[in-house]
Design a protein that fits this description.
Elements: H1 6-28, H2 33-53, H3 58-84, H4 90-118
Helix pairs in contact: 1-2, 1-4, 2-3, 3-4
């Protein structure tokens, strides 16, 4: 089912990027606090999207996707801090930040459509 689900694919690929970032930050920069935080929020996006696939109801689906959206927002915050503290360079930041923004926009659209279909 996940092979045909674009947001599930996107968020899993993003989680893998986040895990690689965490590894880089710990091994190369010796940065542990922010690397742990961005790892938790960045991987949680996909975990909540995956949970939404088997939601028990439309409300449960919207709730899981809304949690994924909140985690995406938190990830944005940690990425900004990592960049502004010079733990990641401009090029790396822009690439992963853009991926997160695309996921955020997709989640907003999914939630909006799910809520509209309830009316």
């Amino acid at each position: 089912m996940n092979r045909d689900n674009p947001i599930a694919q996107q968020t899993k690929a993003f989680a893998l990027r986040i895990l690689k970032l965490e590894k880089f930050l710990k091994e190369e920069k010796r940065e542990y606090l922010m690397s742990n935080q961005v790892s938790r929020s960045g991987t949680s996006i996909g975990a909540n999207v995956r949970e939404s696939i088997y939601a028990q109801s439309r409300a449960d689906f919207i709730s899981k996707m809304s949690i994924a959206l909140k985690e995406s927002s938190e990830t944005e915050y940690w990425l900004e801090l990592l960049h502004e503290s010079e733990c990641i360079d401009d090029k790396s930041f822009e690439s992963i930040y853009d991926d997160n923004n695309r996921i955020t926009a997709t989640l907003i659209n999914i939630i909006k459509k799910a809520k509209e279909s309830d009316k």
